[in-house]
Structure formats: C-alpha cells, structure tokens
Design brief:
Number of strands: 14
Strand content: 15-25%
Number of domains: 2
CATH architecture of the largest domain: 3-Layer(aba) Sandwich
CATH class of the largest domain: Alpha Beta
Oligomer: single chain
Order of helices and strands: EHEEEHEHEHHEHEHEHEHEHEHEHEHHH
CATH superfamily of the largest domain: Glycogen Phosphorylase B
Shape: globular
Radius of gyration: 21 Å
Number of helices: 15
Structural class: alpha/beta
Distance between the termini: 22 Å
Strand order of the largest sheet: 3-4-2-1-5-6-7-8
Length: about 375
C-alpha cells in the first residue's frame, strides 16, 4: 500500500517531527509498504531515502519561526496527490493542512491526522486568554475530528483535547532509536570538558523558543549553584531566544554553554549519555522525543508538570512545576538516587517505546498490517 504523508513546519536539520517522520517512513518501508513524504521547501525536489520518497513543493518561510516553511498552494498539493494515487494519507499538521481530510473523502482515500502539538495550549499561551483560547481550540478541534477518518494522539494528555468534545482519538506513542541512544555513549572526555570529575552536567536539548520555556533551565542552574552544587548547563539547540539567553547567563555569571544545533549525531548521543540530568521545561509538550532519547541514553529527566512528559518518563524522572525552585528540588532529588540505579531506570523506561511499536500502531490505525518482518534497526 502507498502511504502518503504530508507535513508542514518540518525543520531542515532538526526537530521531533522530522525524527518521527523519518522513523515512521522507514518502518512503513521495512514493513512492506511504500512511504512518500510531501513537505515544503525552497523549490520542488524529489529524493529517495531509506524512509521513502521525499517530495518538496515550494513553500514560503513563516516569519519569526526560525526557518520553518508551510505549504500554501492547495492546487499544487492536490494535483501531486492525484498523480501519486495514495491508498492512505497521513497528515502531520492539524491547522494549515486540515483541508486534506476533505480531499481524502472526495478521492475515497482514508485519512489520518496526527496531533503533534497542543492547540489548546498554544492558544492559551499566545492567544486571547484561557477561556477564549479554550473555546477557539474546541471549535478548531471539532473541525479536525469531522474532517478526518481518524485522529492519532501520542499520549493520554494530548487525547484530552479531543475527548472532552466527545471524540475518540487513537493513542499511539512515538518511539526512540534504542540502538543509537544508549548509556554506552557516555564520554569521559566530554565530562572533563564541561564539568570536571565532580561537577554536575545539566542538559537542555531542544528548540530555544517561547513555547519551550528554555529560561527555566537557567533558573534551575542558578538554584543549584546557589545551594552549593557545582553544576553547569549545556544547551543543545537553537532558536530565536538563544541570544537573549546567552546574555542573561553571562549577566548572572552562570556557567552555561550554548552549542547551537548539534549536527553531529555522535556528539548528540554522547551529550545525552554523559549528562547527569536532562531538563525538559516545555509546558505544553505532547510527547517529548528529546526527553525519551535522554532516557534511552541512561539520563533521567525533569519534566514540566503541565505537559505530557510525566506520562512518558514515568518513574525514571520527576515532574516539577514551572518555577526555578521546583526544578532545582527535582534535580537534587534525582541526584540523590544512586547513579547506577537512576541510569538503569531511565534506560528501562525508554525500552518501553521502540519505534517498531509505533510503526505497528500507526499501521493498525491505517487498517494495514506488516507484509514483512520487524527491522532490527528501529526495533
């Protein structure tokens, strides 16, 4: 079967959506189906990868979002879909691509929308306020439910946006590359470089933008150092808040190293395995792939109570509210656990989320089964 995925806001070099699209595409291919991905780009292109064929259509850059592009030409997208003749369509954008549900109905092609973000949360953070934002989110989510044959959410937290409308989304967790991210990537040289033999390395891995609340990681670092802990913060990620955060860290005398986007996959894996605690301060995360990669690397996570991450990290980390004091206390509590035990617990939690499970779950929603066996590279 030909599964065509369409996605907006896919960063060219990083991001959880990019990771998920590649892993799912590879899984579909290995399961015996054909995967095609349509995304916006600066020009029309076509390339073949292990995770399927990738087609880009010209799409403008959205101002202020750090390079994200969006497909706006419905005629071009619809025409490409007609030429491809998909058996299933899978839409990874609940706002600008909602119209594709209607395309699927007219073409007789079953459609799935995957909810990667909290529309309710975004509107509450950046919209007209809690009550108006909630009503607007409910109206838009109701349209999404009506447009698509199925809606997939990755956590129970994300499901609640739809179940309160009486809808019945399908829960399918995402996964993690358990072969790439392992405790064995721990690097003594990185530890010496950033913290010395006795220091504590905090790792913030993610986009530096307002909806991720990265400033909370600086507050946690400040709180630990004020309490006498020799802690440093390593920030792997880029975004519009990088420069202000760097200035704030310097003004406060905080030992924070901003690496920007880490393009070397081996360095990223080593950072995740070498850190003592990973910080995930985003208040409206619906899953948290970076946090799961930290767990797979043997590093426990402090996650925001208001997000879906406590559901994902389980007992391998701790939830904390959005204050520096709470994050400081949670980090301290994790460090008080024996290192061997906390690292083993992190890895064990991550092993509950193989990509093969996510692939099987998504195929089941499509009404499809594996034609070939599980690929060990993603299991």
């Amino acid at each position: 079967m030909l599964i065509v995925r369409i996605a907006n806001f896919v960063h060219a070099t990083s991001g959880g959506l990019r990771t998920a699209l590649r892993a799912l595409g590879q899984g579909y291919q290995e399961a015996g189906h054909r995967a095609v991905l349509i995304t916006p780009g600066p020009r029309a292109t076509e390339q073949e990868f292990a995770y399927g064929r990738v087609l880009t259509l010209p799409g403008p850059v959205v101002p202020g979002l750090g390079g994200y592009r969006v497909l706006l030409n419905r005629v071009a997208v619809g025409g490409l879909l007609e030429r491809l003749g998909p058996d299933r369509i899978e839409v990874h954008d609940r706002s600008t691509l909602r119209w594709l549900g209607g395309w699927g109905r007219r073409a007789g092609v079953p459609s799935m929308m995957v909810s990667h973000e909290s529309l309710d949360g975004l509107l509450r953070m950046f919209g007209p306020g809690r009550s108006l934002g909630l009503r607007a989110a409910d109206r838009l989510n109701a349209r999404t439910v009506k447009a698509f044959d199925s809606v997939v959410c990755t956590t129970g937290w994300a499901e609640r946006e739809f179940t309160r409308l009486g809808a019945t989304p399908v829960r399918v967790p995402l996964g993690v590359d358990l072969a790439r991210f392992t405790p064995g990537n721990r690097d003594p040289e990185l530890r010496r470089r950033y913290a010395g033999p006795d220091g504590v390395i905090l790792l913030h891995c993610g986009r530096l933008s307002a909806e991720k609340d990265p400033r909370l990681s600086l507050h946690a670092l400040a709180g630990l150092r004020a309490a006498g802990t020799d802690a440093v913060l390593v920030v792997a990620g880029d975004g519009p808040l990088r420069a202000p955060l760097e200035r704030e860290a310097a003004a406060r005398g905080l030992p924070a190293t901003f690496l920007g986007h880490v393009a070397d996959p081996r360095l990223l894996a080593a950072l995740l395995a070498t850190a003592d605690v990973a910080l995930a301060p985003g208040p409206i995360e619906t899953f948290g792939l970076a946090a799961l990669e930290a767990l797979a690397s043997g590093t426990p996570v402090v996650a925001r109570t208001s997000s879906a991450l406590p559901e994902v990290i389980g007992d391998a980390g701790l939830p904390a509210d959005g204050t520096g004091a709470a994050y400081t206390a949670a980090v301290r509590a994790l460090l008080d656990r024996p290192a061997v035990a906390r690292r083993a617990a992190a890895r064990a939690q991550a092993e509950r989320f193989p990509w093969s499970g996510a692939v099987d779950g998504f195929l089941a929603v499509h009404g499809l089964a594996r034609i070939r066996g599980t690929d060990p590279a993603i299991a």
